[in-house]
Specification:
- The complex is a heterotrimer.
- In chain A, 35% of the residues lie in helices and 9% in strands.
- Chain A is of the alpha/beta class.
- The mean pLDDT of chain B is 89.
- By secondary structure, chain B is an alpha/beta fold.
- Chain B has a five-stranded mixed beta sheet. Chain B has a two-stranded parallel ribbon with strand order 6-7.
- Chain C folds into two domains: 310 residues, Cytochrome-c3 Hydrogenase, chain B (Orthogonal Bundle), CATH 1.10.645.10; 30 residues, no CATH class.
- In chain C, the strands form three sheets. Chain C has a three-stranded antiparallel beta sheet.
- In chain C, a hairpin with a 2-residue loop joins strand 6 and strand 7.
- The radius of gyration of chain C is 22 Å and the shape is globular.
- The chains are: A alpha/beta, B alpha/beta, C mainly alpha.
- Chains B and C meet through strand 3 and helix 3 of B and helix 2, helix 9, strand 6, strand 7 and strand 8 of C.
- Chain C: InterPro entries: NADH_Q_OxRdtase_suD, NADH_UbQ_OxRdtase_49kDa_CS, NDH1_su_D/H, NiFe-Hase_large.
- Chain C: It is found in: Cell membrane.
- Chain C: One of its GO terms (molecular function) is quinone binding.
């Protein structure tokens, strides 16, 4: 993060800088072309013309992790594939974010067995989880919007915010 | 071509090798000795009248609690006659081994490797019997009945704290 | 068949290189590469740009579906079948349902049969559209990808109308369909049929006589019929070599013998012929969907699950009236139906090739063994045979034309 961190807390100057930097990051986040299984097809559907992802600046799917900043883990991660996922994540330069798309990436999905890693957050740190099997393209876009909001809240110090836990049930039953 | 014709042709040549004949829901399946299995497959493929040139499916089944414990099932199809016949051969622990159909039908290559990988059945005469679906250093054969499913306890609100404390989450 | 058929493994290519062979280079086309066919790893042995040998390394998507199905009842295991060949989930559902129905020996009502044929053919069209889009994308014809997905969205809307889910519908259950067809199903399908043949003409306009496309695909990746049968190559890949074998005509299921359609057959067995065969298959599928729609309209409303109450549950309102229905419902929900001891194998023509399902039952509510004969897994064996002597760019086109789906390869 360089100069912004060294400039310290200069009040209004750093706040505006934060906003500008985060705005720049959200509006042209390049995803890594990383489709594993069925969710990849819905990701392709989200990229296609009906649920266009290029209006969010994500038209270019970079094949090389060195040129990408968002890894959408779309699909089930098997035990053979887990080291590959980790290696690709390590090869991505900072700043980088990870969206776990689909139930298999979030928690292992319907495959609770020897072959599938129960949630890709055992392999890479995840920022946003998108539920669904597979999630509709609109759900993926909702996840991407949530990630954009999370990025907009990022501070210059570079410290990652702690995950927002929902402790109370979402529906209050009286 | 129907079940009776092919059964008669096989009985003529391999009567000693046929251990069982079963016709269930219109499908003919024969259980052979290992020697008969290979010879019958070759005969069915090469005989000009029968022409079962297409090996459609080859897989293994683990009948835990039965002797022989494992069984390899091969479905041969004749495209000309539009008919299918099933050859079965049993093999037992400790080292289940069955003749390989790969020299006769190259399509059996991956299917036998998969059966070896998941069930541990060895195939004599296979050019390269190695693991295919699981990582090379995996120990065990998952599809065997005595291999556990490997499932994780499902997290509900009452036990999630305990489960998540032990799960190897990655933080950076 | 001039040279002997070999299916190399990655170790067979890597070990001599490690031991010191320097005439050829070993290159890894890793599990992550910019081709949307999934996590397939290829180990290439190259002499400059020319491929001397290629060995697929699969297993990066192994999900243990067959083992997991053994721990679920028959009906619950249907959802796992969707996720194998994820471009044609309804085909997987159909294959598994047919295999278990063969074990159970149940009658499926006419309305369900026609709906199964209709939706399976729509699924075939949508799968071929993804194939076309990704194949063209691999060869840098990007507009076709966007056009194909436009039609696919229409088909996915139909699936959503019928089952609630766009892709993993699990709509074909053992005994019939999950729910009855909604009232606006036939008009929606007819709306789709109104546009479809002209859209296929659009794709053909872009590609079939395009000199760039012809340059990349004609004469590339040739395989002859005898090698194809020996290697177990099925589907459009086999029909492109001249063998007119389609399970829908050879061993018909679900009433396919009553529909009139043709089997497109190629001549040379190269990538261009596979392309032509699949485009023609899309047209034939449209024809079948038209016939099925007319039949549905004529048949009118009716039951969509078998009347055998030991297999399919009774309608909910009967439970309050009849003790027998209540008991059937209870047994089905707590235990599940129990097929007789035995085994059954059924194969269908999925968009990838011959998809087979081998089910073994031991008389309990859970299957003893389920095995899927996955066409993509077996088709991959022919890659080395077809790619020898071609260049790496041809290999990309070759994989796309084989149309593998890694979910099915690894199960």
């Amino acid at each position: 993060m360089g100069i912004e961190e060294k400039a310290g807390n200069l009040g209004i100057v750093t706040t505006t800088l934060e906003t500008v930097v985060n705005w720049g990051r959200t509006n042209a986040m390049w995803p890594l072309l990383f489709g594993l299984a069925c969710c990849a097809i819905e990701m392709m559907g989200a990229q296609a013309s009906n649920y266009d992802l290029s209006r969010f600046g994500m038209e270019l799917n970079r094949a090389s992790p060195r040129q990408a900043d968002l890894m959408i883990v779309a699909g089930r991660v098997s035990r053979k594939m887990a080291p590959v996922v980790r290696r690709l994540y390590d090869q991505m330069p900072e700043p980088k974010w990870v969206i776990a798309m689909g139930d298999c990436a979030a928690c292992g999905g319907i495959f609770n067995n020897y072959a599938i890693v129960q949630g890709v957050d055992e392999v890479v740190p995840v920022d946003v989880y998108v539920a669904g099997c597979p999630p509709r393209p609109e759900a993926l876009i909702d996840g991407i919007m949530m990630l954009h909001q999370k990025v907009m809240r990022e501070k210059i110090s570079g410290k990652k915010e702690s995950p927002i836990r929902i402790d109370q049930p979402l529906v209050q039953v009286k | 071509m129907d079940n009776q014709t092919v059964l008669a042709a096989l009985r003529e040549r391999f009567a000693a090798e046929i251990l069982a004949v079963n016709e269930f829901r219109g499908d003919l399946s024969l259980t052979f000795t290992p020697k008969g299995y290979l010879a019958a497959a070759q005969f069915l493929r090469d005989d000009p009248d029968l022409a079962y040139t297409f090996l459609e499916n080859l897989c293994g089944v683990d009948y835990l609690g039965r002797k022989p414990r494992f069984e390899v099932v091969a479905h041969l199809t004749s495209m000309r006659h539009r008919h299918r016949v099933c050859l079965k051969v049993g093999c037992d622990e400790p080292e289940p081994t069955v003749p390989s159909l790969t020299p006769l039908f190259p399509t059996a290559n991956y299917q036998e490797r998969e059966t070896f990988d998941l069930l541990g059945i060895r195939f004599d005469g296979h050019p390269s019997l190695t693991r295919i679906l699981l990582p090379d250093d995996w120990v065990g054969h998952p599809l065997r009945k005595d291999h556990p499913l490997g499932d994780e306890e499902i997290a509900f609100t009452f036990n999630q704290e305990r489960i998540y404390a032990r799960k190897p989450f990655v933080r950076e | 068949m001039t040279e002997p058929i070999t299916v190399p493994t990655p170790q067979q290519i890597i070990e001599p290189a490690v031991a010191g062979r320097t005439e050829t280079m070993v290159l890894n086309m890793g599990p992550h590469h910019p081709s949307t066919h999934g996590v397939l790893r290829l180990v290439l042995e190259l002499d400059g740009e020319v491929v001397v040998n290629v060995a697929p390394d699969v297993g990066y998507l192994h999900t243990g579906i067959e083992k997991t199905m053994e721990s679920k009842t028959y009906q619950k295991a249907v959802v796992l079948t969707d996720r194998m060949d994820y471009l044609a989930p309804l085909s997987n559902n159909l294959c598994y349902a047919l295999a278990v129905e063969k074990l159970l020996d149940v009658e499926i009502p006419e309305r369900a049969q026609i709906a199964r044929v209709l939706l399976t053919e729509l699924q075939r069209i949508s799968s071929h559209l993804v194939w076309l889009g990704t194949h063209a994308l691999d060869l840098a014809a990007m507009s076709v990808f966007l056009y194909a997905f436009r039609e696919r969205e229409q088909i996915l809307d139909i699936f959503e109308l019928v089952s609630g889910a766009r892709m993993m519908t699990s709509y074909f259950r053992i005994g019939g369909l999950a729910y009855d067809l909604p009232s606006d199903f036939i008009p929606t399908v007819e709306q789709f049929l109104a546009v479809m043949p002209s859209r296929i003409d659009e794709y053909e306009d872009l590609l079939t006589a395009n000199p760039l496309w012809l340059e990349r695909t004609v004469g590339v990746g040739v395989i002859d019929a005898q090698s194809a049968i020996a290697l177990g190559l099925t589907g459009a890949n086999l029909r492109a070599t001249g063998v007119a074998y389609d399970v829908r005509k050879a061993m018909p299921y679900s009433g396919y013998e009553t529909y009139s359609f043709e089997i497109p057959v190629g001549k040379n067995g190269d990538i261009y012929d596979r392309y032509r065969v699949r485009i023609a298959e899309m047209r034939q599928s449209v024809k079948i969907v038209q016939q099925a729609t007319e039949r549905l309209r004529e048949l009118g409303p009716g039951p969509v699950v078998t009347s055998n109450r030991k297999v399919a549950p009774p309608p909910k309102r009967e439970i309050t009236e009849s003790m027998e229905s209540l008991i059937h419902h209870f047994k089905l929900w707590t235990e599940g139906f129990k097929p007789p001891r035995g085994d059954a194998y059924v194969s269908i023509e999925s968009p990838r090739g011959i998809l087979g399902c081998y089910v073994v039952s031991d008389g309990s509510p859970k299957p003893w063994r389920v095995h899927f004969r996955a066409p993509s897994f077996i088709n991959l064996q022919s890659l080395a045979h077809m790619a020898k002597g071609r260049m790496v760019a041809d290999l990309v086109a070759l994989i796309a034309s084989l149309d593998p789906v890694l979910g099915e390869v690894d199960r």
